[in-house]
């Protein structure tokens, strides 16, 4: 044991001798990389101050630590108020600042310097003994300087011995700090490993949950909750490029008006994760991350995160990228499921509306039914269905829940209906108040802000226009816009069917040549009117010598004469009267609730006009009969028989006259 002590004492003596010749050399058992940095030196001095501090310093003694540039890092004093300014952190001991001084001499010589205050020009330090030594690593590189100032009554040898003891204690503090740094590094590494393991577990669980969800809102909420568990102090925004109804405050629309250099825009356009660090050139840094939510069919949005207090490294970027990929796939699946359900509901709705529209073959009923169904489906405030009137090139309001506009007409270039008519394209207006370039009577009367409109196309021609409005802005979605297009095509088919049915019905009861009703229609209507009216009259008209006209001028002229006479008859009677082609050149007119005297005057007007207006000139003979409720036996056959006998009498008496039956 005594031999070991002797060896240790000898080793320490040798180390002290080296200290006197070269300065204090630190133990080679530690790495002193980065020790010269001011924060590290300050940390070492604080550790030394906590462990030893003034207790190691005699009275009226101070110790300072200076870096390689002779700038004071920290100091410790025991009753040395007169030299406080020289010990203050940040004070420079360069020759240029303090003149010739022990720290400058130590820097220049590279070994221990001892100096009496009398050798120095500074008055406050005249009474002090000063010792300064460089602190070297085991490669001989200066790490920092220790300077000892004392007014105690000790000699230079004891001063050097005291500085050596203080340097030894400083080495102990350096080693403590180094051990602490190693511990912190290992602890941080362990923490990072734990965090990485936690991220893998959370990512695995989140991926399972995300892929199991078929609701868009649930997918978005799970992504935000997952990121909140890993990064509780980070702001997270989910920016979507499509319409969404999520109530989560972190879910927002993606703003496409940002500059191209914005990382959110870049992530969406480039389809890759983009990190914008606060510190450039660092392995880990706080900053902003934008990760695209990508599926197989495209990019649906951007996951945007702002890190202010947490440092981001490569593992964080990988975790966020993988989570964004899973979220994008899950969002796409949920969106496809949502769209498939929407399509099923739309098809069911279209089927029901089509059935309802096809139940009626009357245009006014189709318009009214379509208007009420559209209001219900879209939750709109007002609807308006306009039909193209080909007779006068106008759009007529045929159905609306705004009574003031019913049957109102608009030109083909007026308002939104005119815009749709001319372009043959549907439109959607999010806010009319902020974009009122088109003057709209419907929007102004109803004080509405949102509008969707669609043309009713039949074989490529615009047969009408549908307009739907709401008082709130941004009320209608793109899905509403598409659905209205589909419904308008079915409404167009229903209109076509009703028009065709009306045309067929008209053709059945109408004579193709003259445009008058067919005989069976006149028979049916006269029979019905005899059951509800109190009187009526019948005029039978026959063109005189019509065979001679055909033989002289040909059948085309004969047909023209027949058409002309039919037009004269139609223009000579009321709208409620029924004119029909009786057969060949014979025509008939039933006059409901008209007496015999009135019928004779009408027949005379027809006879005279035919004689005056036809070219070549022809004449007509007329037979008139009537009925009233006082007769015992009322029948269509009796009425027609008497008129026919009267016509025969007119022919027999020389033609171009009227006889009463």
Automatic annotation (TrEMBL):
Q: Which residues form the signal peptide?
A: none
Q: Which InterPro entries match?
A: Diguanylate_Cyclase, GAF, GAF-like_dom_sf, GGDEF_dom, Nucleotide_cyclase, Rev_trsase/Diguanyl_cyclase
The UniProt entry, under SMART domains, shows: GAF (SM00065), GGDEF (SM00267)
Checking Pfam families in the record gives:
GAF, GGDEF
CDD domains the UniProt entry points to: GGDEF
Please report the stretch or stretches of sequence annotated as the GGDEF domain.
534-661
Indicate the segments annotated as coiled coil, or none if absent: none
**Name the UniProt record assigns to this protein:** Diguanylate cyclase
Organism the protein comes from: Paenibacillus plantarum
